[in-house]
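Nucleoside-diphosphate kinase
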Amino acid sequence: MDATVKHLRIPPEMAVYAEKHEIFDLIQALVRNLIIDKPTDPIQYLIGLLKKESIEVPRVILLGPPASGKRTIAKKLCERIGAIHITASDILKADTDITRAALQYRQNNQDVPKDLWIKLIQQRLSKSDCVRRGWVLEAIPKNGEEALCLQEAGISPEHVVMLQAPDGILTERILGKRIDPVTGDVYHVTFIWPESADVAQRLERPQGLMTKDLMRATLELYHRQAHTLQSTYRSCLRVINADQPHVDVFAQVLTYVMTRPHSAAPHTPRILLLGPPGSGKSLQASLLAHKYSIVDICCGELLKAAAADGTSMGELIKPFLESGRQVPDVMVRQILTERLSRLDCTTRGWVLHGFPRDVDQAAELQEANFSPSRVFFLEMDDDVAVARLALRSVDPATGERYHALHKPAPNREVQARLWYDPWDSEEELQKRLKDYWSQTAALQAFYPQAVRINADQDPHAVSECLESVLVGRLPKVPNMQPSQALC
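Tokens:
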């Protein structure tokens, strides 16, 4: 066969390395920046990008009507993610020719021409602090035309947040608005009052505070412009209700900004399910494998299959399985890594459960270059786990499974021949649960991005929780909590 046309198989190690270090995303980011900035020397420009601490920096636009809390949210957001807070007044502070020209228009009560205003924004965003740390534009752009001009200039946000609240609430907020003259922070006599008595004493009413009529006219103008802005940024827009405590509003904004944009990079699922006995790991693995065409790997079943094959390794582990003793880690690792190295796992991905049971096994899995891309802890109380397992049975004649509470035997004849697995006795379960919880804290520390899911609910609800994390990219923002609880 001609070597130029034969099919080539890329070693699985290359895909794992590329995903681990986000090589595909890096190339995508380099090409995008190259097209947007159009440097005269592309090679030197790319070298400069690669020398930066991070190519992917926050680029956020925060929009909303007057009194929706944009300033408060923008300040807190920048403190949290380390970006630069940019407002219209900040853009006009630079001492340049175009800034002075724009101020001249302002002094004459004229609108700054669009092309001049866009140049001012470009000038501010091109400074080293914005390039290095990213930016949050507050109330910029103001209308659809300005948004299109920004896009033509290559200023494209990754996240756009639009705050919304009823006009009556916004009017009440604007009338109760107070400003700290020292810090410029915004407070409210009803909604946000400072904790410090000294700060409360020096608060002032804003100069030129709007009347109800002026506020009504301003809101009408905003609503006409907001529809066009939503259409312009629909691919990256999140509308958030601002008529709730500002702490809750900020939490929703932060969660969205932490969400990473969709990537076209190839991805092979490598899912790890951990949880106590009875948490539904096998069922959820089966559902995921069926829906996403990935390989379901149960470590216990894998060992039984190896023992039944009659191979030399199978003969070695058979005595351990027959006596109920734990198979040595060396043997488990050899059998597991051989299975995960097969073509179906490397091309389609896998969902693993029953391994690892402790940190040492987790470290061995990582050293073998089989690091999971998603880790889930299915959590439930011990009483629920015991009720699920100790009361289940199997009809040896038909293979049908029953449960004393949820699916009892249909008649006395079936009831009489039911078989109960001694492995599921309450005494044995309590021992297994104790062993699991003794290792859980260390495993959660080993997998800091693991997601905890409440397994004490309908299996389909658990599946939805799992899939909500699988379909999106993991957040890549500092100061995140090491693990997050869902459902």
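The two ends are 54 Å apart (CA to CA).
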